[in-house]
Amino acid sequence: MAGIAPCLYAQGNGKRKNVTNARSSTLPADYRSKNFLIHTDLSPTEAKDLLDRLEKMLVIISTYWGSPNRKVIECYVVKDIANWPPGSLHPVGAQSVANGGGVTMGRASYRGKQLIAATAIVYATADRGTPQHEAVHAYCTQNFGRNGPVWYSEGMAEMGHNWKALPKKGQPIAVDCPEYVVRYIKNSAPQSLNTIVNARSMTGDSWQNYSWRWALCHLLATNPNYSARFRPLGLGLLMKKPVSFNKTYGAMAREISFEYLFFLKHFDRGYRCDLCQWDWKTKFRKPNSVRPLSSKIEANQGWQASRVLVEKGKEYQFSTLGEWKTDSEAEPTTAKGTDGGKGVLMGVVLFVNEADEYMLSEAFELGESGRFEAPASGKLFLRGQDVWHELADNSGKVVVKITE
User: How far apart, in whole angstroms, are the C-alpha atoms of residue 355 and residue 360?
Assistant: First the structure.
């Protein structure tokens, strides 16, 4: 029998009964659903709502990992620790709850490398999605025997409690983290990929560190440039195979670093990584005065490849054809945009600096037609101006032609 280290979730800031037979909401009672048994001092209505959220989350994570839940997940969910009789909670669980967080305590047994049996029990405060976070750890423990390294374990647990519903087929999940996480990340100096993945970190350190791990996992899980490799990497980590972040993404390190920092700068609730992914495959070349280079720029996507290599200080001529809408109710507009600036064709130049890092020039306005001077030498990318986390309901496209 091998012990599983408990997962601590630090946010910083009896006889079994069913809902209809539950006792007073101030006393712990038991509530069941298909995959969960929760002991809690929540009211019957609150307990049912929590069970519904846990079941929806479990469908999403079990679908993502391709492994149906093996056994009921048992949870102690505490609204007010004063309602719990002395000794009714495991001392480690009681301490975690008293500190405003949670812990998942698990054990697993193996025959060789094969998982034979595993069990996990969750202790969690009822606040801030802690039960959902810890339930992800319990699911991983009972289905895989482990949770993987800290950056993956805690990042995916945060993703789990942020997932509210299954997306439409083929549509990656939009950002739906709490507003305080958005504010914290956007107002903080970003943690580097190396710090997140390779630093000697510990579970339960702080909700701030959990936020960075969530950001990286969300990007890798939902950006098509990286998602195909991320799921096998995660399963390998959960099954203790000889895989690692560096082995999986080493050849893409420069691209991931760029997109990770771009995500941190522009994301908000509703942001779609699939719509904002960068095109690393399209080939670019210099235009000439005889044959223009043409590209189709979609309204519902971020920066898109123009196929044009530009030189700093050089002037280029462009024209556009077509219309687009910046939301489902908006009137169509050309690339000149609306009076408020939405939908205007914008440009930016992607280049590599002396440190061999991808960088962006300042974005500049193009409009419907005319000439522009390149602010840097590199690859020209184009987009229709709109708020980054509101692209999903845009529609239409314009064709852009560029010559010297």
Answer: 14
Q: Phi first, then psi: what are they for 115, rounded to 5°?
A: -70, 125
pLDDT in tens, the chain (404 residues): 344 445 554 444 333 333 333 444 468 999 999 999 999 999 999 999 999 999 999 998 999 899 999 899 999 999 999 999 999 999 999 999 999 899 999 888 878 777 778 899 999 999 878 999 999 999 999 999 989 999 999 999 999 888 766 556 656 689 999 999 999 999 999 999 999 998 777 666 788 999 999 999 999 999 999 999 999 999 999 998 999 999 999 999 999 999 999 999 999 999 999 999 999 999 999 998 888 999 999 999 999 999 999 999 999 999 999 999 999 888 999 999 998 899 999 999 999 999 999 999 999 999 999 999 999 999 999 999 999 999 999 999 999 999 99
Predicted TM-score of the model (pTM): 0.88
* 160 phi and psi angles, rounded to 5 deg: -60, -45
Q: For residue 279, give the amino acid letter.
A: D
